Amino acid sequence: MALFIFLLLLLISPSFSAFVAPITKHHGHSTPFYTLKLHLKTPLQPTDLLLHVGATFTAVDCTRNYTSTTFHPVPCNSSLCRSLQSNRANTTNCDITTGKTVVRGVCIILPNRSFAHVDTLALPITNGQNPGQLGVFRDFVFTCSDESSRLLQGHAKKEVAGLAGFGFSKFSLPAQVSTADAASTVFALCISGSPSAPGVAFFNQIKPYYFLPGIDVSDHLNYTPIFSHSVAPRTGKTNNKRYEDPYFIGVKSININGKPIAINQKLLTVDKKGNGGTKISTTDPYTVLERSIFTAFIEAFTKESAIMKLKSTKPVKPFKLCYDADDLSETHVGPNVPTIELVMRNDVIWSVLGKNSMVRIVEEGVDIWCLAVVDGGVRPTSSMVIGGHQLEDNFLQFDLGAKRLGFSSSLLHHKTMCANFNFTTIKLF
Ligand SMILES: *[C@@H]1O[C@H](CO)[C@@H](O)[C@H](O)[C@H]1NC(C)=O
Ligand SMILES: *[C@@H]1O[C@H](CO)[C@@H](O)[C@H](O)[C@H]1NC(C)=O
Ligand SMILES: *[C@@H]1O[C@H](CO)[C@@H](O)[C@H](O)[C@H]1NC(C)=O
Ligand SMILES: *[C@@H]1O[C@H](CO)[C@@H](O)[C@H](O)[C@H]1NC(C)=O
Ligand SMILES: *[C@H]1O[C@H](CO)[C@@H](O)[C@H](O)[C@H]1NC(C)=O
Hints:
- The chain is mainly beta.
- The protein folds into 2 domains: 2-71 and 114-216, Acid Proteases (Cathepsin D, subunit A, domain 1, Beta Barrel), CATH 2.40.70; 218-413, Cathepsin D, subunit A, domain 1 (Beta Barrel), CATH 2.40.70.
- 10% of the residues lie in helices and 36% in strands.
- The strands form 6 sheets. Strands 2-3-11-4-10-9 form a 6-stranded mixed β-barrel.
- β12 and β13 form a beta hairpin.
- The structure holds 2-acetamido-2-deoxy-beta-D-glucopyranose (5 copies).
- One 2-acetamido-2-deoxy-beta-D-glucopyranose (NAG) binds at residues 130, 212, 422, 424, 426.
């Protein structure tokens, strides 16, 4: 209970408790990534955080040029600290060395040995159609770490101050800005493929979600069960150590032009150790498939494209199958290639058309479309990881209370797109 008092939200108005934030795609480096813009610190500063749908905590590097009058570390051994560490508080070790300074008496979060702190965070309220004034959260809990810069391999240090964690945790960003308890948090993501026109994240909004020209996409969602399973990092010692709390969906088969490909079903379920299954990721730019699934997928796609008289060309890394742009006809849903369908265990279908299955590579003397799927190797933690490119212009609603994911497939079918949220700020009360 003390925890909830500690986290009490200060809302500007009781009648608006939904929030919104722009999501921007960045192309600058070899791999694209997505950031969420919010306001942090006192006085409030606009801040870009790497969008990480599976991360347990929101993390900012508070050792690097961090000035805020409301910043304070979570005390070692406090009840909030024990809750953050899932009751595995390390009361013998409360000091941490960051750079050349030692910070004493703080709450250390394992396994990455970062420490927890609180500060002010603000997001615009929304009615589902426009953003309004900022809603302010005084005691938002972060970890202090440079995780985002490790994930971006040192790139974009200037632009990206940390990462926004949306994982299944009561300390995720959506859970902390939720007025419901963490287990019934609702949030939605709509990622735009255009670096100049942002997509949008909604918090606490069940409906409506308006996109120009006046389309409420909550009318166009299919639902499938969603679940979470803590996953340890791919590298390093992982015993008992939580690192991510990502979301999984139950894909039972993949169809290419309506024909199912052969997949070992065992790979598609999450086992007791958290291995296998289909994860959703905003930090993998492209879909990643376990080796045997990848091989079957490429084979079936090649066969179907041959039937459509498409001839492949020399691929560009990391892709395996590419076509000359001149040889593909284009439609409003992307190049005309075999259609991919992800069939869920509850028999609803997530269809993936050219715009999401293919990525265009324009380099010196090269103009090709490549199948935007990469080889995950043998025995990866998750057998399928649905990555950013496949999520673009697909609306996703994560309803943790109803334990379901609402998905739209391509919004282009409904004559709108993720960049069509109207970010003109209005006065909402
Ligand atoms: C530190 O922050 C100040 C004020 O926000 C800014 O002007 C300065 O460029 C920053 N320095 C670095 C190294 O990022
Ligand atoms: C943490 O709390 C326990 C129980 O309240 C106490 O015995 C212990 O000394 C405390 N440790 C530190 C480092 O304050
Ligand atoms: C707590 O910290 C001490 C000192 O760093 C370390 O030896 C011990 O293994 C830690 N305990 C846990 C549970 O991590
Ligand atoms: C966006 O919202 C503003 C405020 O409601 C409105 O005036 C404007 O016409 C909208 N833009 C479009 C393109 O509809
Ligand atoms: C934190 O976790 C990441 C992800 O696996 C790992 O690469 C990194 O070395 C860890 N950092 C520390 C300081 O333990």
